[in-house]
Amino acid sequence: MEQFSPKYFDYITMADFVRWLEERNAVESAPKPSSQDFFILANANNTFLDQNDSCLAHLTDPSGRPPIYTEIVDPENVARRKRNVTEHMLEVLGSRYNKFGEAISLGGGSDTDDTEVVNVFYDRRFPFIDNEDSLVPIAYSSKWHNIADTLANQLYPFIAVHWRMERLDPLSNLVPCAVSLVRAIDEIVQDQARNPYYPQIPNIFLLTDYPHLLDQGDTTESQSFKKSEIFQQHHDAIHYLYTHYPLHLTTFESPSTPPIPHDKLPANWTVIPVSHYPDVPDDASTLGIVDKLVAMNANWFIAGEAQVCGKRSSFTTRIIDEREQIYQQDESDKDIETSTQIMNVVDYFSIVGDEDMMLDDGE
Predict the structure, then answer these.
(1) For residue 34, what pLDDT is reported?
(2) How many domains does the chain have?
């Protein structure tokens, strides 16, 4: 944050903010800091933000300040946006009317806004601040980089494969996509076998929202990918993949999680425990950061073609952007073979034809 302040805004850290709240609450004769919640939704029908309780709610007082809900639609295509999203958000935060045109209460209903804490819960999928500096990704913590570097060093040389299966439609695409993915890996493996410098067969690191522990409760690796959305076609596609190549995936291992059932997993399905830092949250989003950083430095990167074998996402885009930068930096050294060299930015796997499917089934 230091790179932006005080050029653009003033801020305090979360630790300092919590400390201030606790100090205010420690004075029994003083009221809690007044607060008001704003929910800025991409779709008014989505209620998942409202289902999450604020961990600081007990330290503030929202009396007389009901939550404010508003909808701001901001499609990815900037040309389709009806108005400036930044201006819209600022207007919402200072408005006395909600999206239904109903009067709302700011500052406890008084003419002077005396609200001390404004909690903004927003569901935004795309950038909304009109400033080039805001488009620069905030660097991940060195903790994540250290974990990812350790994993990558264990895997080199390796192929990173990102296969997001959530809501992939139609389901009949899944197995043909798996066939295509195996063939894409075949090409890399065959080329590598002819490499006089590093003929070692590369490992395969799989980034997927499919359950990393396979049938152990069918818990997906995405908060939005529900257990009820996993069908036999998902299982068949993954089965096809690991029966053709050994795969490596990650999972968190901590005192609060069950042991990894290595003895119940297929021989070609290696789950790597991530447990280097006790204070690292053991949730899917954190693990996704580690996986993303590993993929950024893979020798090869393969992803499912959008709308056919995968979904277009900021996750994949962030990996590709970082790999593009590294690839361009290494362009002058392409004649020097190294075990950590990035060989491509990204290749996509799609669906093979019926004839190819028949040939593959006969192998």
Answers:
(1) 92
(2) 2
